[in-house]
Amino acid sequence: MLTAVNLRKVFVTKEKKGPWRSRKKEVVAVNTLDLAIRPGEIVGLLGINGAGKTTTIKMLSTLLVPTAGSIMVDGTDAVKEPMKVKKRINMIAGGERMLYWRLTARENLAYFGSLYGLSGKALTERIHRLLQAVELEAAADTPVEQYSKGMKQRLQIARGLINNPSYLFLDEPTLGLDAPIAKHLREHIRNLAVKEGKGILLTSHYLTEVEALCERVYIIDQGELVLHDTPKRVIQKVAAGEILSLWVSGLLPATHEHLRQMLVPLEASLTILEQSDGVELRIQSKGEITAQVLKFLFEHGVIPHRLEVEKPKLEDAILKLAGREEKGREKA
């Protein structure tokens, strides 16, 4: 298991106080963060830009030394024995970084494999298996600069697996990809955890992707842990409820008012939007109210000719949490 306990990273910068003077300024990027990744599970690391996600991943992947705290990878201290830990981890970034465009896929994998001490027949066989797995055999000897975005991202995955890591850090792995290609890559990521037992830490702005892949999520803001739970429970805790939209005709003003009064004890708000063929009743609530609203309308002789129920998503919860944290800082 990979664990981080009381992880903290402080950057020291210089702040000018005049033409000849400056003083040191401390910027806390990550503050007392705890997290864990078990073999065979996909965990999300989420937050608004500037939350500390990139700094956290750099510390976990030994690219940055923590100011305080510990990182253990299957019993090995990542700070004291970084070279040993590097053999058990790897990182895959979205976009087109971390590849040499003038080299072929085979040459890229051979180069990165050599950095992990692989050579000879073992490296050749590893490259062959990875190119098969990401379906790039036919283009193995084509320069990467001629690849499509999807092909480059599949090669990124192969590069990240060249050392057969136990833990993978995925930073926006489907960034900029078309929907069908992104879906295919998500399936590949899921298989890495389910079939190969790899522990995966995922950061992504595509929160539907996080909902689909992650068993647990860590939500951080300003470098501190705000919430840790399953995506479903995060939504229930932060953004529970629903938005109910009903399109109706012949609704009397008195019925409007009765409906509004009925919604008050349910902590629901009503917005009435005029439409060409009637009105749209838009009701936002903290709980599920569809059955109660329909019962009320039927009792008043109103039959909706269209109905939509919108459930909150993980994105709604993240934005709501970010809003709460921002308000808290303003008050402070």
TrEMBL record:
Pfam (any one): ABC_tran
The chain's coiled-coil residues are none
Could you tell me the keywords of this UniProt record?
A: ATP-binding, Nucleotide-binding, Transport
The molecular function terms in GO held by this entry are: ATP binding; ATP hydrolysis activity
Q: Which residues form the ABC transporter domain?
A: 5-247
Q: Does the keyword Nucleotide-binding apply?
A: yes
The UniProt entry, under PANTHER family, shows:
ABC TRANSPORTER ATP-BINDING PROTEIN, ABC TRANSPORTER, ATP-BINDING PROTEIN
- Would you tell me the protein name for this molecule? Vitamin B12 import ATP-binding protein BtuD
